[in-house]
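Sequence only, no structure available. Ideas?
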Amino acid sequence: MDSGILLVVEGLEVHFPVRRGVVFERHVGTVKAVDGVSFVLRRGETLGLVGESGCGKTTVGRAILGLVSPTAGKVVFDGQIAGGAKPARLLRRRIQLIFQDPYASLNPRMSVGEAIAEPVRLHGLRSGETAVQQRVRELLDLVGLSAAHAGRFPHEFSGGQRQRIGIARALACEPELLVCDEPVSALDVSIQAQIVNLLQDLQEKLGLSYLFIAHGLNVIKHISHRVAVMYMGQIIETGDKAAIYKAPVHPYTRALLSAVPVPDPAVERGRRRIILQGDVPSPMNPPPGCRFSGRCPIASDRCDIEMPALIQRVPGAHDVACLRAGESAALMPLAALESG
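Reply:
I predicted one. Tokens follow.
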């Protein structure tokens, strides 16, 4: 494997059985939360995984961490198979998670210092209590908090400060990969920018890699090097950030970007929004062809029966899963996706 590649996800599937009955449970269906996801993540890179709620983004992150078992496919981290129970234990220190809710993810009965010190002790990263406490002070300083905060409890902090504490706790394990599961969606917009800037600074200082899961396209644009767009458990478009934001190809990606406001009234007035019709299909009974065909403004009869493969449009820079990829720009015009 290329030494520059840290994580490989290949053909990942995570299906959940649906059972009914109180005494005699019976299997009535399967929810295909993740259905054939593949991507690579390089060292020092941020991959933004974006899509609407319920598309499977978080399940992908949990499968990488070993919190759910893949139904099929594999997760390879630095040349080692991850995702199962035993490999997950061996790699847990090197892959850490930043949670969406910065309050629910912290133990209200543990002080900040105790929460950060616990993984340091658990993994034997420092010997002696003095060294552990010194490490706690270093981590608090690294995320922009004071050493005096170590004796306080989570309820004494704002949402942004609690998220900084969560980041410090994740960094206590000295990881190489952080799975950021919508880490700023519960915060005010001004605080979101501070946390995103902090994550970028930490990446530069520590050489971290991020899988950044979000549904906010503005946040993804700011922090990511590459972007992968998910819809109903599948990646439908992926590529360099510039390729996705300047020239989106998949109709779903174009619809998402058409809803992003531009901070220029003149440009905003000239933009066309794409309003999707219909409902998202059930993940228990997805359509046989393209998952997006029932809502796609340019779908053809072929789209209803044929599953599109993720095809390279620009080698190494832009892939898309759409049977009408060459026609989407003409049939779904967008004005001024970029504001300068």
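Residues 107-173 form one domain.
Hope that gets you unstuck.
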